[in-house]
Amino acid sequence: MANETESLNFIEHIIEDDLSSTHSKDKLRFRFPPEPNGYLHIGHASAICLNFGLGKKYNAPVNLRFDDTNPAKEEQEFVDAIKRDVEWLGFEWDTECYASDYFQQLYDWAVQLIKEGKAYVDSQTSEAMAQQKGTPTTTGTASPFRDRPIEENLSLLEKMKNGESEAGEHVLRAKIDMSSPNMLMRDPVMYRTLHKHHHRTGTDWKIFPMYDWTHGESDYIEQVSHSFCTLEFQPHRELYDWFLDQVYDSDKLRPKQREFARRNLSHTVVSKRKLARLVEEGVVNGWDDPRMPTISGLKRRGYTPESIRNFVESIGVGKRDNLIDVSHLEFNVREDLNKIAPRVMAVLDPVKLVITNYPEGETEWLDAENNQEDEAAGFRKVPFSRELYIEREDFKEEANRKYFRLTIDKEVRLKNAYIIKGESVVKDSEGNITEIHCTYDLDSKSGSGSEASLRKVKGTLHWVSIKEALEIEVRIYDRLFSDPSPDTHKDKDFMEFINQDSLQVITGYAEPSLQEAKPEDKFQFQRLGYFVVDKDSGPDKIVFNRTVALRDSWAKLN
């Protein structure tokens, strides 16, 4: 039992109440039940952390169950991606299960329901069935096939199973209550015919169970004690329990469904259907595009498992759906990367800096700290020479007193190096600055211990030696949508809010230590942000994705 002084969320209170009344701790079992019709997204991360977190808290097994009952949309690719994502987040499942493992048992139970007069084959069109179901304020009317003889129902179901009926010709419906105030209880469909190849059962089955029929019975077969779903499944709970009533054996544990709120993320969408549309219409480059809210996309963007788990923990478990600002997710990855990411220097909008009094042809190797947050990270060597790149925005020919970067007749420090003073500029025919000329103070070298090196200046700039600079491709990612909640506008398609500037590809220059960087290696480009090596990198080109800027630039704009 949990310590009484421990703060529990409402889900944990449910479990604690059950442990004090109906359940024993050794019978607890949880599950994460994704449908393999797309990649997992940040919303799934909440469900993953909830269920696997409960498993860890109560030392109980957690099943990974694939609800693979719709072969028209499900693929092995999605199964593999889901398993990778759950493992990457740091969780291990007890048993890998598939709803398709239970197709025969589900079918046998359906036959049993027909024999008991609790299910029938309906041959109406889907439009006719929808019409006779009624509305929330009017009762439904019975199907003309509701009282079909049991033997005829069994014969038709067998023909459906054998593929002797066309898709949509018949469905199997539970016989419950056409006047129920819960529309889901008005003779719900249990089976439909689909002549599709299934990723695991091939063409063995021609009929496939619906979600509501499959879900609770799968929980029961696996002896899952608590089945946690998002709030949209709350109306389904009555049907979940009705289906369980038909097969429940009192000698076995009975699963309990309870619901928690979704945590939606701003400036994105988390509907698999809408995410699939972004992929299919080429708005993004696949399910793992770094702009996608998929776990694979976040991983490729440079997010860490720790940052996502911390984010999920910080927003908690609630009873009301709400919109979480994406800046909160970004805060968590900044916090984590600040601790672990090595600091390096890269210039993304370069302008040439010439130190006129530095010896021509000479290269000096200076010590640079890898991470001031980690004493064990040590130092690396960076080359310094007469000609450097600095950021174009770090120089102004004329500036006011509040500008603490380089300008004419003003001193700044070059990070890990010397103090320099702006002297003059070279411009092209259009008046653009092509070179900045400056002088350096030989005695101001960082860490030299000399009095001059201790001299304070207000500005410090990062830089890269041109001669040894490594050319890199840098992908600057921004929020995929310009609107905080793009799919809540009734009169507009969510695609209308696509941020056309969500990706900018530029050429930058980095210190040569990055030559050996490998995909998924993460760095802080000093003064610029956090970046990760992309899988598109090769021997001739290193590609970096920006994970997040050092500060929330959107906060200034909104």
Automatic annotation (TrEMBL):
Does the record's keyword annotation contain Aminoacyl-tRNA synthetase? yes
Which keywords fit this entry according to its UniProt record?
A: Aminoacyl-tRNA synthetase, ATP-binding, Cytoplasm, Ligase, Nucleotide-binding, Protein biosynthesis
Q: Which Gene Ontology MF annotations are present? A: ATP binding; glutamine-tRNA ligase activity
Q: Where is the Glutamyl/glutaminyl-tRNA synthetase class Ib anti-codon binding domain?
A: 341-441
Q: Which parts of this chain are annotated as the region Disordered?
A: 126-146
Q: Where is the tRNA synthetases class I (E and Q) anti-codon binding domain?
A: 460-534
Q: Is NADP among this UniProt entry's keywords?
A: no
**What biological processes does GO assign it?**
glutaminyl-tRNA aminoacylation
Q: Top enzyme class of this protein?
A: ligase
Family named by the database record = Belongs to the class-I aminoacyl-tRNA synthetase family.
The name this protein carries in UniProt is Glutamine--tRNA ligase
Source species of the chain: Ulvibacter antarcticus
